[in-house]
Amino acid sequence: MSDLRQRYGGALALHIRNGKGAKARLIPYGELETCLVYVEAWLRQAAIGEGAVFRGIYKGGQHVRTRRLTVRAVQDILHKYPLSIEGHPKLISPHDLRRTYARRLYEGGVELMALQQNLGHADLRTTQLYVGTLDAHKRQPPAVYRFVHLAELRAT
Questions:
Q1: CB 3.0–4.6 Å: which of 6, 34, 135, 150 could bond 15 by disulfide?
Q2: Residue from 75, 101, 83 nearest 16 by CA
Q3: Mean pLDDT rounded to a whole number for the chain
Q4: What pLDDT does 85 receive?
Q5: In 3D, which of 142, 144, 119, 140 has the Cα closest to residue 129?
Q6: CA pair distance 59, 76, nearest whole angstrom
Q7: Each residue's pLDDT tens digit, 68-82
């Protein structure tokens, strides 16, 4: 639980102790800080006051564990709740969630190098693979130059 509210450059951040590549890192929440409201509701409901935030608590009415969820447990949970995409059920994996996080934040304006650091990738090319190919609309450059029309030039 102590990892939920760390500071990074004065900003509220999530501490990842042993993430991708066994690397520790701090990820600033930014405007996603509101997700803590849901986490805190879970903590109250599950009566968790210390230790791992996401953990198996009961199975068949029996108390089973207080340690963190394994990757396999998260996979099992995600497979119980498939998404409906264009009317078809789609199973997702924890890694799909990482890729979606990367793509959505990139589309929201987060720089590629910032995503690389948040994801813990050693190579920027890996982060680029997560972001994927952008459609033509998203690849159009912004207006960084202002062109003066000939009529405006003649008027001056």
A1: 6
A2: 101
A3: 84
A4: 85
A5: 119
A6: 13
A7: 788 888 888 889 888
Question: pLDDT-based confidence at 118, cuts 50/70/90?
Answer: very high
| Tens-place pLDDT, residues 30-83 | 988 999 999 999 888 888 888 888 887 666 666 666 677 888 888 888 898 888
Could you give the 3-state DSSP secondary structure of residue 81?
A: coil
Q: Is residue 89 part of a domain?
A: yes
What's the domain range around 140? 82-156
Neighbours of 29 (CB within 10 A): 17
Q: Are both 37 and 93 inside the same structural domain?
A: no
> What was the pLDDT predicted at 110?
92
Q: Name residue 29's amino acid.
A: Y
Backbone Cα Rg of the chain: 22
Token pair recorded at residue 29: 């929440």
Q: Which residue has the tokens 């953990």?
A: 55
What distance in Å separates the CA atoms of residue 94 and residue 71, rounded to the nearest whole number?
8
110 shares a domain with 55 = no
Say yes or no: 110 and 142 in one domain.
yes
- Please tell me whether residues 13 and 61 are part of one structural domain: yes
74 is a domain residue: no
d(CA 104, CA 74): 21
- In this structure, what is the dihedral angle of CA atoms 114, 18, 65, 61, given to the nearest 10 degrees? 20
